[in-house]
């Protein structure tokens, strides 16, 4: 049974960056205002995510890492939205089958916190009382210690740390009311360091730099016609002065970081058609639509989404981007 669990867990947590994404999303779900990530050896030795969120209750600790344990079901009662949020109650459990997980947490009004470690879905010891300030810290050590081939591949592949920095950068420019930091173990300074701000442009400047932030144009679009499409979109897109060899597309749909290849390609096409000499674009977009209109691919790690009325939505966004680019270039 444990081999089966390990294989399944290895599918949910494919690389260190997938673990970081799940942990940061949990911190966001816990209403944190500050999230710090520390990484050692590309995440294979250590991933530590600390937040100042609402914490985990003592009585929830024994079952925390059992599969399908989630405190979030009441919020996502209807099946459609469970589907749109991806798998529930799988992430932490999965991590305990492929790494050593230690949770330190304190809930509001408590004088001390608790620390407890998990392996293969179960607590290794009774939670021990410990000092804690606020929120939750989750540490994953020796990720894939029991998956020799996976460890080898990751050790030889380009640093996963770069992917983690990229991930945190994306979170930081969307959740601008949250402070983020991401640091490599032993490094003096953080590679992502963004302080909560009311201005998205400020956040983009602090994460991606002035060369990006000063070349952005604000965009907005919406539709509310149930017979064609219902959505709201706002974001920033690069102008003709922006220079890059690769497209950066940061896409949030209903506040979840996702990929939508069809939309990305469609926008690249608009750039080539409208600004033939311009480089690949930088695009940040936040789209809101009825949860039941979002379909996340069945595979838990795939972030690719498809949308109901996707063609209509993509075309509408394309035409807004096109007219904004034309006006900016006159
Ligand atoms: P899910 O997020 O789908 O509920 P997870 O396996 O990611 O499943 O997490 C299981 C549960 O652990 C969550 O429902 C939540 O109650 C709790 N939890 C995990 N991380 C945190 C955190 N940082 N702060 C508060 N609660 C957390
Ligand atoms: Mg989760």
From TrEMBL:
Q: Name one GO molecular function term.
A: mismatched DNA binding
List the keywords (alphabetical): Coiled coil, DNA damage, DNA repair, Nucleus
Its domain of life?
Eukaryota
- List residues of the DNA mismatch repair protein S5 domain: 204-326
Cellular localisation = Nucleus
Presence of the UniProt keyword Signal in the record? no
Q: Which GO terms describe its biological process?
A: mismatch repair
- What cellular component GO annotations does this protein have? MutLalpha complex
Q: State the similarity comment.
A: Belongs to the DNA mismatch repair MutL/HexB family.
The protein's name: DNA mismatch repair protein S5 domain-containing protein
Upper classification of the source organism reads: Eukaryota, Viridiplantae, Streptophyta, Embryophyta, Tracheophyta
């Amino acid at each position: 049974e444990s081999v089966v669990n390990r294989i399944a867990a290895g599918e949910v947590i494919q690389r260190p960056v997938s673990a970081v994404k799940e942990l940061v999303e949990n911190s966001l779900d816990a209403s944190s205002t500050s999230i710090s990530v520390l990484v050692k050896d590309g995440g294979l030795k250590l991933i530590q995510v600390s937040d100042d969120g609402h914490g985990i209750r003592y009585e929830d600790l024994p079952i925390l890492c059992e599969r399908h344990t989630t405190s979030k079901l009441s919020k996502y009662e209807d099946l459609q939205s469970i589907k749109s949020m991806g798998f529930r109650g799988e992430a932490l459990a999965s991590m305990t089958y492929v790494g050593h997980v230690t949770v330190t947490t304190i809930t509001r009004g408590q004088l001390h916190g608790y620390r407890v470690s998990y392996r293969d879905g179960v607590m290794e010891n009774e939670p021990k009382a410990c000092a804690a300030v606020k929120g939750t810290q989750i540490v994953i050590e020796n990720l894939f210690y029991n998956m020799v081939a996976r460890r080898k591949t990751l050790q030889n592949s380009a640093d996963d740390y770069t992917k983690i920095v990229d991930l945190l950068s994306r979170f930081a420019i969307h959740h601008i009311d949250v402070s983020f930091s991401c640091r490599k173990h032993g490094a003096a300074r953080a590679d992502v360091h963004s302080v909560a701000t009311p201005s998205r442009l400020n956040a983009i400047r602090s994460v991606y730099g002035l060369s990006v932030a000063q070349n952005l144009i604000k965009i907005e679009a919406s539709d509310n016609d149930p017979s064609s499409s219902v959505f709201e979109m706002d974001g920033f897109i690069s102008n003709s002065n922006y220079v890059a060899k690769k497209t950066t597309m940061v896409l949030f749909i209903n506040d979840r970081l996702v990929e939508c290849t069809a939309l990305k390609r469609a926008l690249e096409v608009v750039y080539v058609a409208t600004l033939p000499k311009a480089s690949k674009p930088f695009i940040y977009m936040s789209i809101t639509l009825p949860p039941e209109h979002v379909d996340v691919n069945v595979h838990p790690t795939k972030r690719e989404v498809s949308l109901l009325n996707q063609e209509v939505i993509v075309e509408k966004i394309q035409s807004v981007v096109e007219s904004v680019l034309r006006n900016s270039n006159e």
